[in-house]
Amino acid sequence: MQRTYEVMFIVRPDILDEDLDKLIAGLEANITQGGGSIKSTEKLGRRKLAYTVKKFNDGNYVLLTVLADGSLVGEIERRLRVSEPVIKFISVRMDEEEKRVAKIKAIRATRKKLSAQPAAAPVEPGPAAEVASA
Amino acid sequence: MADETSTSSAPSTSRPEGSGPGGSGPGGRPGGRPGGPGGAGRKFFRRKKVCKFCVEKIDAIHYRDVRLLQQFVAERGKIVPRRLTGVCTTHQRGLARAIKQARNIALLPFAARY
């Protein structure tokens, strides 16, 4: 069962840029090999942490949006836990939330149509009347 | 933060007026505002609080937008209760979840320093 997950992790601030890229590339390779696919990778850059984590006060945030199995996410988490430069991570399941938002949007769209109809209605009788006269 | 001061002042007017079960609340206040509970002419116009998420049609409360979440977190890092912010139940639930997730990834503090 493939689901959408967001995996966000913080890499220690003293890491070199190329090492960070290597780390991300390695993770991506892991995901694709494990049968998942990557929707997007985003480096959110360096940010101040709200509290001290492993004696660091800031960190590099990275966000991965992944389409994967639950077991694969478990594997990603395990890898993040053992990889030394990663100081914190969180993985959040997004598909249900996305579904819910889509549903709300759809409902809102139908409502808009209803409200649009009375405005459109006066226009319609014109052609209709013409058809009737013709 | 000016927003918060206005919201926090609102419940103090509402409590004596509601003649609620909280006996200590009204007991402590009448000294400051004697005309509040009984007087028909209300001095303080209290704006109806509305849910920000309903009004602005924000569907997804995401743990990543710190700017948004920060409006609903007190100075010390606590989640501000619904009765102060006016957020509806559904959105408060999602909001609390998002804030807790944000805390977990160090975007928001569990407890602000000093």
Explain how this protein is built.
Chain A is of the alpha+beta class. Chain A has 2 domains: 3-93, Alpha-Beta Plaits, CATH 3.30.70; 98-133. Helices cover 49% and strands 35% of the residues of chain A. Chain A contains 4 helices and 4 strands; from the N terminus they run E-H-E-E-H-E-H-H. Chain A has helices at 17-33, 70-82, 95-120, 125-133, and strands at 3-11, 37-53, 56-68, 86-93. A 4-stranded antiparallel β-sheet of chain A has the order 2-3-1-4. In chain A, strand 2 (37-53) and strand 3 form a beta hairpin. The model of chain A has no long low-confidence stretch (mean pLDDT 83). Chain B is mainly alpha-helical. Chain B folds into 2 domains: 2-38, no CATH class; 52-104, Ribosomal protein S18 (30s Ribosomal Protein S18), CATH 4.10.640.10. Chain B is built from 7 helices and no strands. Chain B is globular and about 50 Å long.
